């Protein structure tokens, strides 16, 4: 089955700087890669996703890049703000017969004011 | 109400108790899920229901018993739990089970087993 590894497990960034979280996956058939943000006391919420036919996707201050050859994808947050502090999870979803999401272990991002 | 609602938010129970977690979704989705979230571990998929039929059971111990009486409600019945079952239990829904796309999560039920 799919295995998703996520790094780093914790990340502290000065407010205004950029943050990058990286994930690798094992199943080359995976074709959907979402990122979820979990704030304290809340459930995870989708913030951005990318499909395998696209190499990069951007939404305001967040962007995701995908390298299918290397089987890794990354989340980039620019101009970080205190409200970006949360736990971020990457995930991978397979193709026919393996449609369920496999999540990474999460990255706790702290923005230092 | 909108979204996915879970009750109770917090639950403390002894190993011999019987309790239930409840989930309700107001999104008109066809698939509902139970996930277990433990510290420093990936989200663990426990059960999947599609149109009220259980389609997946990821080798979950029988002390966890799900119930889906209709497409809007999902329960997780708990009995004779172990301390290692202490975790945050998340309910989620999606439009469909196949290629679910975005999962909509509730805020979770924090379970402590004494």
Please give the radius of gyration of chain A in angstroms. Answer: 14 Å
Task: State which percent range the strand residues of chain B make up.
Answer: over 45%
The string of secondary-structure elements of chain B, in order, is EEEEEEEEEEE
String of helices and strands of chain A: EEEEEEEEEEE
Count of alpha/pi helices of chain A: 0
Which outline of chain A best applies?
A: globular
The residue fraction in helices of chain A comes out at under 10%
What is the element layout, followed by pairings?
The complex is a heterodimer of chains A (113) and B (114).
Chain A (H helix, E strand, L loop, with lengths): L3 E4 L2 E5 L4 E7 L6 E7 L6 E7 L4 E4 L2 E6 L4 E6 L8 E8 L7 E3 L3 E6 L1
Parallel strand pairs in A: 2-11
Antiparallel strand pairs in A: 1-3, 3-8, 4-5, 4-9, 6-7, 7-8, 9-10, 9-11
Chain B lengths: L3 E4 L2 E4 L4 E8 L5 E7 L6 E7 L2 E5 L6 E7 L2 E7 L7 E8 L9 E2 L3 E5 L1
Parallel strand pairs in B: 2-11
Antiparallel strand pairs in B: 1-3, 3-8, 4-5, 4-9, 5-6, 7-8, 9-10, 9-11
Write up this protein.
The complex is a heterodimer of chains A (113) and B (114). Chain A has strands spanning 4-7, 10-14, 19-25, 32-38, 45-51, 56-59, 62-67, 72-77, 86-93, 101-103, 107-112. With 113 residues, chain A is mainly β. In chain A, a hairpin with a 2-residue loop joins β6 (56-59) and β7 (62-67). The radius of gyration of chain A is 14 Å and the shape is globular. The termini of chain A are far apart. Chain B is mainly β and 114 residues long. Chain B has strands at residues 4-7, 10-13, 18-25, 31-37, 44-50, 53-57, 64-70, 73-79, 87-94, 104-105, 109-113. In chain B, strands 2, 4, 5, 6, 9, 10 and 11 form a seven-stranded mixed beta sheet that branches. In chain B, a hairpin with a 2-residue loop joins β5 and β6. At the A-B interface, β4, β5 and β10 of A face loops of B.
């Amino acid at each position: 089955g799919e295995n998703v590894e996520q790094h780093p497990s914790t990340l502290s960034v000065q407010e205004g700087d950029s943050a990058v979280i990286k994930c690798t996956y094992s199943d080359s058939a995976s074709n959907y890669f979402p990122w979820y943000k979990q704030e304290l006391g809340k459930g995870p919420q989708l913030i951005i996703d990318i499909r395998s036919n696209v190499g990069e996707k951007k939404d305001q201050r967040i962007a995701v890049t995908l390298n299918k050859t290397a089987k890794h994808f990354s989340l980039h947050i620019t101009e970080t703000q205190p409200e970006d502090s949360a736990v971020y999870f990457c995930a991978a979803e397979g193709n026919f017969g393996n449609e369920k999401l496999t999540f990474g272990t999460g990255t706790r991002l702290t923005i230092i004011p | 109400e909108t979204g996915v609602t879970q009750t109770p938010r917090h639950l403390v129970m002894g190993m011999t108790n019987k309790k239930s977690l409840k989930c309700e979704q107001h999104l008109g989705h066809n698939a509902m899920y139970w996930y277990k979230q433990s510290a420093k571990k990936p989200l663990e998929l426990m059960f999947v229901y599609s149109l009220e039929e259980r389609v997946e059971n990821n080798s979950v111990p029988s002390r966890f018993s799900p119930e889906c009486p209709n497409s809007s409600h999902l329960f997780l019945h708990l009995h004779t739990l172990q301390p290692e079952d202490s975790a945050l239990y998340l309910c989620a829904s999606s439009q469909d089970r196949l290629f679910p796309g975005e999962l909509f999560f509730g805020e979770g039920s924090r379970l402590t087993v004494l």
